[in-house]
Amino acid sequence: MNNSCKIVYIESDTDKVRIDFRYTNRYGYGGWVRMNPKCFIRQVGTEMELTMIRSEGMPISPKILSFTKQGDVLFYSLFFPPLPENVTEIDIIEDEGEIKSFNFYNVSTLNQKIIMTTNATTVLKNIEKMALELKGNRKEIKSFFEDLKRLDTNLSELADFLKLTNEETAIFCLATYISITNDSFSIAEMKSDCNFSPFDFFEIKKIVKSLFKKGWIVKSGSAGMHRGSRRFEEKLYYVSPGVLDALYKDITPEIKIKEIDVYAASEMLHKCLTEHCEDAGEIDELCSLFLEYEEEYPNINPFKITNELNLDRSSKIIFYCLVSKMAAGEEQLDVDRMLSNFFNSHTERSKLKRMLAKRESILFDNKLIEFTIEDFKTDKYLKLTAEGVKMVFGEDACFLSKEDVFSSGMCKLIKHDSIVEKELFYNENEQQSIDSVSEFLNAEKFTDIVKRLEENKMRPGLTILLHGYPGTGKTETIYQLARQTKRNILLVNISEIRDKWVGESEKRLKSVFDTYKNSFKRFEQVPILLFNESDALIGKRINVTSSVDQMNNAMQNILLQELEDFKGILMATTNLTANLDEAFERRFLFKIKYSRPSQKAKVAIWKSKLSFLTDEDSIRLAEEFDFSGGQIENISRKLFLDTLLHGKKYSLEDTIQYCEEESLLNASGRKKVGF
Fold first, then answer.
1. Do residues 75 and 57 make contact, with C-beta atoms less than 8 angstroms apart?
2. Residue 303: which domain range?
3. Which of 345-349, 520-524, 541-545 has the lowest mean pLDDT?
4. Are residues 573 and 462 in the same domain?
5. Looking at residue 671, what is its pLDDT?
6. Of all helices (H) and strands (E), which one includes residue 44?
7. What is the DSSP track for 561-629?
8. pTM for this entry
9. How far is Cα 559 from Cα 538, in angstroms, rounded to an integer?
């Protein structure tokens, strides 16, 4: 639980001990927490126990607080009787005999002055000092701007070094401190952590936005924040790794801001719309994101047009949907599906339908949109007009990359020259099979093989199934084969194929194969069609008891037929071969089984991932821990990130500690819920 629960602040005086916590829900929907009423603190090295007086924000057993999403964050406080004088370290125990409980040992009562890194450089020491000054004494509500005046001299020196304003420097110091100690931060958390006045919230928000625009901080998504039972969504940020790397070297960060163009803006819109189309109730959050884009990038054409025409909420959604579709290679927008995805009121949907049918929209007036067929009753598909495409994408609209038409919601293009080279290690049998496939994918050999198969009236398609143990490199193998043989990949987004409308999922699956066939005309070499994690599509067919079962079986029948007549290269991955339908089994020409890495392979993986390990170290780790390549990579990444944050050179003992933590995480298949 210590990974989920962190101490934010400790206040110890003659009246009480107050401890503020930050708890992150790791368990998704259905996760819950509650507090053991017998929770206590004690002075380190003694048996004295001070039982909890009360809790704020955390329910006392048997009551529970339920979470709605993974990643939701709860802030709460526990209060205990006062400690004797001069006590500097305490244990905080919920239930000493229960491993699911949170228990902290040897905690400093001066927790707010915890050093964020043991060997911070001069500039990081100054940033840390400034952050602690701003956090200061939280007993009284204070003004952020009064603190700036108080710290003006020291702030100015640091601001000159960082080339930021005093206000930006102050917030950046807090962001850096919180990021290193808590991974990420939110604006509300920052304000609360320093006990700033509620009136400062919007000013701090502006400064955070400025730091984000300048590239000093990066968005890491959002989380539900809880203050007791009250929940609200907050954006999360962290300090850019490049900035931290420069600060550790005692140099001023030089940040190169990537210029955003209309195509990057379209990708942002596409991602934003895709994430929110599942829940029409999130329309306010969606429009809030649109407003942010319009304010941040007023000169980018889609946002410029929106501002100039002063589009209302519904017109804005229609327009942005069409822009993102066009950039993704899908010209048409299904009106019914769009209304269903983004408008949960039947009255509003009907009103918008009538408005579109009568062309009563500023989008029609300005010749931005049109129906694909003029009769709305027979064809309910919208598209950007030729003039609209030119207005959005500019004079170079005609140069929209032909290759990009294959990147859509269902089929994403991955170019072979964008794949990073990566060394992989296999067991002997796997290596032989992969070498054979690599030879077949060689341009000259593949063309010759296809020709000979056709001459002998055999199926010319090369279909390959990679199956077996998770984390053994099935997907990465396909990527590396594509890079080596200079073949692009068309990655099928299986989750996007499924649709709630009758018959739509089957159409989408067929369109994937149509897209693949069309790609032969566009690329020099036949690309690889990749169905990653394809368990849902190639599993055993089931007896029909519902419309969902009927849809699944219909999709599988289409896939079987397409594989029967397939021409090209299709590769699929799965972890669950026991559930593989026999009809699919015979349609895959090659079936490569991935087992847990052998002793020899594990030694090679350890050596490649952690250069400081000796041969003896690698052999010891391979013998003691039965990890897959993916698990070993996880451990090496954690060590690397800690090296960046703390500047520490890690040893075999540190690696073993991380291995033991990884083993603990994977020791049981069931999730731990609650405290």
1. yes
2. 262-399
3. 541-545
4. yes
5. 33
6. none
7. HHHHT--SEEEEEES-GGGB-HHHHTT-SEEEEEPSPPHHHHHHHHHHH-TT--HHHHHHHHHH----H
8. 0.42
9. 8
